[in-house]
């Protein structure tokens, strides 16, 4: 069982806006930055969001992150078929002195 | 940006050890910590630990403490992860990744190394 909790699946149609949640605690999300990764089948994860809501250059502005208290969210607007992938949140956990990941959310574009 | 190339797939017997390498090319390898993350087939990402640029600091997930050693050789721009006392549950793809560059927001990942533990 993962320290950070994500819904196992999400879906949307092309053009829609989809949100993926990530729930943690005061020792991780509540006191540290949140990161979001996209993983396409058979490939290494790709960083989408760092420091809660910042996008690395090259990541489309359709992807946005937010954090409130001990929860975080990834929003994808203007959904495209190529967004179909697994998405993971991550944060440092002060109690565990280590990085923790969510269990991942499989996004399906219908 | 740093490019990371990992060593090839390994097949090990239970109880053995495996050492995975992660060679960097490009600039600034020594500016970043290296993290190791693994992923069993069909499962999520699991953080294993990190090693500082000069190997003077490491941090391991509690689950792996006593079984994992992470090192770096700056002379050849390579990081290593050695996992001992292998069991079948250690069968997974192992990734190395740089820490996130606070200025650019980028990180780099290796292509992954499949380690299969089977008798």
Brief characterization of the structure:
The complex is a heterodimer of chains A (110) and B (119). Helix content of chain A is 0%, strand content 45%.
Class based on secondary structure composition and strand pairing of chain A: mainly beta
Tell me about the largest β-sheet of chain A.
6 strands, mixed
Radius of gyration of chain B from CA coordinates: 14 Å
Number of strands of chain A: 9
Largest interface: A-B, 25 and 23 residues
Counting H and I runs of at least 4 residues, what is the number of helices of chain A? Answer: 0
Task: Let me know the largest β-sheet of chain B.
Answer: 6 strands, mixed
Assembly type of the chains comes to: heterodimer
The best one-word shape of chain B is globular
Structural features:
heterodimer, A: 110 residues, mainly beta, B: 119 residues, six-stranded mixed beta sheet, four-stranded antiparallel beta sheet, 0% helix, 45% strand
What report would you give on this structure?
Chain A is an all-beta fold. Chain A is built from no helices and nine strands. In chain A, strands 1, 3, 4, 7, 8 and 9 form a six-stranded mixed beta sheet that branches. In chain A, strands 2-6-5 form a three-stranded antiparallel beta sheet, with no helix packed on it. In chain A, a hairpin with a 2-residue loop joins strand 5 and strand 6. The mean pLDDT of chain A is 97. Chain B is mainly β and 119 residues long. Helix content of chain B is 0%, strand content 45%. The model of chain B has no long low-confidence stretch (mean pLDDT 95). In chain B, a hairpin with a 6-residue loop joins strand 5 and strand 6. Chain B has a six-stranded mixed beta sheet with strand order 2-10-9-4-5-6, with no helix packed on it.
């Amino acid at each position: 069982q993962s320290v950070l909790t994500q819904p196992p699946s999400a879906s949307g149609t092309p053009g829609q806006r989809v949100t993926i949640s990530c729930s943690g605690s005061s020792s991780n999300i509540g006191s540290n930055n949140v990161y979001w990764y996209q993983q396409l089948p058979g490939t290494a994860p790709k960083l989408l969001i760092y420091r809660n809501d910042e996008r690395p250059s090259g990541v489309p502005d359709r992807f946005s992150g937010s954090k409130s208290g001990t929860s975080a969210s990834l929003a994808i607007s203007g959904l495209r078929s190529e967004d179909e992938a697994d998405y993971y949140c991550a944060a440092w956990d002060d109690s565990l002195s280590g990085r923790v990941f969510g269990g991942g959310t499989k996004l399906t574009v219908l | 940006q740093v490019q990371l190339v990992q060593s090839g797939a390994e097949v090990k017997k239970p109880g053995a050890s495996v050492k995975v390498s992660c060679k960097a090319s490009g600039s600034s390898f020594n500016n970043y910590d290296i993290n190791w993350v693994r992923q069993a087939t069909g499962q999520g990402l699991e953080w294993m630990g990190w090693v500082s640029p000069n190997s003077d600091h490491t941090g391991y997930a509690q689950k792996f403490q006593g079984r994992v050693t992470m090192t770096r050789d700056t002379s050849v721009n390579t990081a290593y992860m050695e996992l001992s006392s292998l069991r079948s549950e250690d069968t997974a793809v192992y990734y190395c990744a740089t820490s996130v560059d606070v200025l650019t927001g980028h990180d780099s990942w290796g292509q992954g190394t499949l380690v299969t533990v089977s008798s």
